[in-house]
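Example complex used in Figure S2.
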Amino acid sequence: MKIGVIGGGQLARMMVPAAVKLGLEIEVLAETADASASIAPHRVGDTRDLDTVLAFARGVDVVTFDHEHVPQPVLQALVEAGTAVRPGPEALLAAQDKLEMRRRLDALGLPVPDWTHIGSVADLQRFLDAHGGIAVVKTARGGYDGKGVRVVRAAAEAEDWLAGDIPLLAEEAVRFTRELAQQVARRPSGELVVYPLVESVQRDGVCAEVIAPAPRGGRVAQEAARIAATIATELGVVGMLAVELFETEDGQVLVNELAMRPHNSGHWSIEGATTSQFEQHLRAVADLPLGSTELRDPWTVMVNLLGGPADGRLDRAREIALATQPGVAVHLYGKAPRPGRKIGHVTAGGADLDDVAYRARSAAAAFD
Amino acid sequence: MKIGVIGGGQLARMMVPAAVKLGLEIEVLAETADASASIAPHRVGDTRDLDTVLAFARGVDVVTFDHEHVPQPVLQALVEAGTAVRPGPEALLAAQDKLEMRRRLDALGLPVPDWTHIGSVADLQRFLDAHGGIAVVKTARGGYDGKGVRVVRAAAEAEDWLAGDIPLLAEEAVRFTRELAQQVARRPSGELVVYPLVESVQRDGVCAEVIAPAPRGGRVAQEAARIAATIATELGVVGMLAVELFETEDGQVLVNELAMRPHNSGHWSIEGATTSQFEQHLRAVADLPLGSTELRDPWTVMVNLLGGPADGRLDRAREIALATQPGVAVHLYGKAPRPGRKIGHVTAGGADLDDVAYRARSAAAAFD
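Predicted assembly (736 residues):
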């Protein structure tokens, strides 16, 4: 069984150890020769180009993804050519297009922030007027890590986007107390496993830290699991699904974003869960029985490495991190330091949350 | 930093996830194009051929090994060419040549079975007479997994070997109560870490199961750690060192074999220790700070998959193993089933040894 992964980022890279373990073959279609996942067997090509993707797919048994950027016509053509595409185009559309996502979640009766499609300055002004003069404007497509998202207090602040021909939506600026993420995995047969709910700490729209399990989960964890399982089942997701959630002051959860692939909020699972999200994703897309999602430690904390050391000396930073925290897992993605870039992450686990967080942050600090 | 691994077996294969994690580049010199480690960037060539190995080494920063079969003249030439060879030729000689190993351990005053070099039938007969009419005859070089080892009760039983021009030794047939294995890792600087002592269960001269930590370790564990640390330090080993030991009826330990690389007795550490033996080996040979060797579970049991399913349907066996034991780690090496061949292993962990062993054996049984 050979898995083809479209996209050569760190998510594809971290699928490699899972393929090694399970005895699955893996091949990556990477955008560049020096892509993070180029440690695996790979081809280099444009992941949006029909012929490139079709040719790649002919050499593998199932196609899955490192990212959501493969256009729908390409996905459709893959299906028509008889390729097993997991997740499939229809499910993926809800992760590619925020308008589509909001419509489907509404149809499922799941809790989401107030939202509307906006096609004009007048549309946005109406939404602002109805929501206390503040809104989050999002491009329906192409956004990630805070890109394609803008908090506005006047319609003019989105005028440039509105002048273009890009589908936009406005959402209420949710007054949340924290952000959570719920992951599930689903097989083609419908078999589904649920990971523990986690808390994610965002900085500047980018995930900075994840705590697993989310402290004070309780009833919220049950609700998050129900939401994610419903989405995976009703949308027919195959593979990992991450549901990013807001927890509000009154203890409700609202769905923020979806991702149908391994997700930054699940990197903790490499060390912290019996089955990592990367292995689980491969099991699901290869239609193999899913693995246990049990916690391996009472607490696991993952800290992203963003940007890398100011002096650019990544080797030196790694050495310091390993030397100061011999029990912390240091993951580097084979990427050169650059401001804001996710170049790796570190994970610590143990029985005392304060100690675990301290150790993870201490290792991460070596990369500042 | 690019690690070159000579030999394309499952040990090289299992170094790949560690390289992915640490952000190290890796390249393998594999004996065949379909080698177990061919999932990594690799070249195919004869690992005993001087020019092949020299050319391979020019493209990497440090050379290490999947096996002990690179001839000493090739190792020496690598060193002369300025290659960082870890472990170095002098240390490796003690893992390549059992006569050399016995001599060095004697010189260090470490406990070993009675042994002697034998060059003739008369030599062997004298040894048999002095040891109750039973001895273990071993070829000094090239043996592994029970090959090159013969239990004899008459000198005639080794006549074919003695007629050849191969160096042989005779050892007392130790009446041991169990076999143990002690792993340590050592950096070029001398920094050394010690893994928990494990018990290994052998069948037909091949490792069948490993229990970590060894039950009833106690004083024996201290002695095993002292022996392995002494060998690593005094022989100047860089990387992982495995010391296979006999525990005798009177509670002594005797050194049986050495391996200077990741070893079957350490596969449990992928899930069962904070730092796996494969990551530890890469850290050591890349001269990076060593990682914690702490246990992640009270008990970890590893069971080897030998031969594979009788019907040859490896995919089906994997499916059954994953379905029946969702919490057991299943590792497959990308090798076709063949009688006696190590095609993978499974690992279970938890608080109750009986339950852990049951789960590991249950998953392994799917491959019978």
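Residues 138 and 149 of chain A are 5 Å apart (CA to CA). Chain A has a mean pLDDT of 96.
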